[in-house]
Amino acid sequence: MKKVAIVGTGPSWILTPFKDPEMEVWYLNEMEIHNPPMPHRWFQIHSLAVANADHNPEHTKHLAKLKIPVYMQKHYPEIPASIPLPKDVLTERFGTYFGCTASWAVALAIDEGFREIHLYGLDFPVFYMDREPNGYIQRASIEHKLGMAQALGIKVVLPPSSTLLKTPKVYGYEE
User: 3-state SS string over 126-154?
Assistant: First the structure.
């Protein structure tokens, strides 16, 4: 079985099954802040200028040292392992509804034929949704891609703390 864990910086990242030999692990953005085990791939799809301006100044220095694929908008000589995210391939197949890095990673996992997609560190608690200006867009675009995965028969695994793909009640049946 081809499985992938897409991992963000939220608290549930610690639940990632790092020792599963069938699991490919992909990190998003500034995962190095947790000093986790080395992943198979890294995603930082902001332009290098935005990554340098909006993120920890050590982040791009960290990316420059990696020997694994680092998905970015294009190859940057400053980050030797950087490769372009296949944006045109993904938008051709999935449209342009991408609100965050995780939605791009989920789409790539679908496109590459993964049969099981796990998300960790992408819990979207209420406090995050209230403080992140694009939190609702991010959540919706991830849920959209996860719904596409499920429609294709791909198993989606979320930690209990995640609010993705959950409602408090089944509308109309649980009052």
Answer: HHHHHHCCCHHHHHHHHHHHHHHHHHCCC
Per-residue pLDDT band at 137 (split at 50, 70, 90): confident
Please give the domain boundaries of the chain with CATH numbers for all domains. 3-123+136-157 (3.90.1480.10)
Tens digit of each residue's pLDDT (9 = 90 or more) over 6-21: 999 999 999 999 999 9
| 164 backbone φψ class: left, alpha, beta (φ>0; ψ -120 to 50) | beta
Enumerate the H helices of 98-134 as residue ranges. Answer: 101-111, 126-131
Q: How many residues does the chain have?
A: 175
Instruction: Evaluate the CA torsion angle 5, 101, 160, 150 in order and state its sign.
Output: negative
- Rounded to a whole number of angstroms, the CA Rg of the chain reads 16
Mean pLDDT over 57-64 rounds to: 88
Q: How many CB atoms lie within 10 A of CB 104?
A: 25
Indicate if the pLDDT at residue 129 is higher than 90. no
Token pair recorded at residue 101: 């890095």
